[in-house]
Design goal:
136 residues; mainly alpha; Neutral Protease, domain 2
Length: 136
């Protein structure tokens, strides 16, 4: 999966992290995958605290001199958390069917982006608060 723009980087890397954990679960079992998820969540919390203290923002912005400034654990964990939440909400069987279709029938990344934005908006609008709460 390739991000259409750098603003979508978090979703691209979220897929990578999510699928990585699924592979870990298959190879080493659910306890190891759960441990990786807990460690990832802790890294996310630590990174959010660091970013907040620096006031540097959490998203990649092409106007910054150093692209590594925006490529931190937030992007990886944010996307993985979204996908993990969707899997929990709809069940692994249904979510896997969606993923297979999404990744195999969409001919291009531009097409995937056109499809994914409305899907995410429709799926998420019912359970994501209008005003996000801060992670503490």
């Amino acid at each position: 999966m390739t991000n259409a723009t750098w603003r979508d980087f978090w979703l691209n890397e979220g897929f990578t992290t999510y699928l990585e954990r699924r592979i870990i679960e298959d190879l080493y079992g659910p306890d190891r995958a759960a441990m990786e998820a807990v460690l990832g969540l802790q890294e996310l919390r630590d990174e959010l605290k660091r970013v907040e203290a620096q006031g540097s923002g959490s998203a990649y912005r092409p106007d910054r001199r150093d692209p590594d400034e925006g490529m931190n654990r937030i992007a990886y964990e944010k996307g993985a958390l979204l996908l993990t939440t969707l899997e929990a909400k709809f069940g692994r069987t249904r979510f896997d069917a969606f993923l297979r279709g999404y990744l195999t029938t969409s001919p291009s990344r531009a097409s995937r982006q056109r499809i994914s934005k409305p899907i995410c908006a429709n799926i998420c609008s019912s359970w994501i608060p209008k005003r996000p709460r801060r992670l503490t």
